Amino acid sequence: MRPKQADDMSPYRIRTIHPLTCLTSAFLLAACGDSGPGGSGSASETEGIGSASASQSDTDTDTDSSANSGPGSNTQGETADGSTGNEFNCGEVEVQLEAAPGRVMLVLDKSGSMVAPQNNWDHDDDPETPDVTRWFSLHAVVDDITSNFDTTIDFGMLLYPSLAATGDYNANACLVENQPEVPIGPGNAQAIMNILPPANATTAIRGGTPSRRAVEVALDHLRTFDVAIPRVILYVTDGEANCNPDTNVGTEMFEEYDDVVHAIVESAWVDESIPTYVVGIAIRDELLPTASNGTPNNINPHEKLNELAEQGGRPRDGATKYYRTDNQLDLQAALDEIAAEQVSCVVKLDPPPDHPEYVEVDINGEDIARVSDCATEDGWVFHEPNENGVYTHIEFCGAACEQLLAAGGIDATYGCPPPM
Prior knowledge:
six-stranded mixed β-sheet, 8 helices, disordered N terminus
């Protein structure tokens, strides 16, 4: 199922109910109604965000009351009839919320093989039209997915080798920038296409396949983002990882496979929960010969990508674990499928609840259960609290995630503990 795009989705709404207080907020304040038998309540907007106060009527000047400021504080005083204020009927605070977009780093192969004439392939399933370069197809597909998902995914882009790389048979063919050409951020579709060499480029598409350095730079960038929001590498290649910096400069850089990329990808998944989706363009399923031809010797490219996809944590079902593409239509389908999976079911709570144990959530009037294991249960969970112990995000799991994407909104109630 392809999720709705953000343009089609109504905003997520949280209804926070504080039965003991009137809550002032930077977002929206609904005035309190009757405070209950024997008195009236009013909200003071001078107390500051997150604080609230209730004042008694002129006839209740003997009533003792107190006021506290700060997040989650409330004021409750004894009313004229001797109650503790439980019956105060405060208003609602409605906050517009949106699902937090996933963060996807596009790691794109710009090696010379992407435009080699002998590697041209079909792009439209029409035998009457001429074949195109692999780069032509990748350019078209990247343009499509970044524009289609521009409002629901924060994309970034890293090219390997970089635009500064040469086609020489030395280390200059293995250059990778120390930062992504386009850092991850919202609305990056146009920024990516502005940097990406044009579809008909030839001389700008050159160099080796420095996969290890590309993945290292992508991971360093992803580590700067909140771990509560999904972080993903989308790795696209038409060849084999070479440019091994541990070999001697010269032919060994290109003829020796760089196995280190496998350990880096596996560690990112196992230790940091950063998956790598592996997309292969026209990958050969054969043992490569020993030759000085710019490709690693004595390895099977198909088997190596299968291993990498498993280690990256997002293998496909079946014998081929990576996203194998043999024409532009395959490439389009693969990147569409991967991008659709990144539409986030994480919702940022702004403001966060003062009493997370009293949060209740429903979608279209159906209560959604809080669960303990998002991997195996349907419902929602809190992400780990931030450094201040505050819960700032919830994630919808399994069928509840599908419900959220289909409905386009949630209702949540922030409750308060009963009075002592």
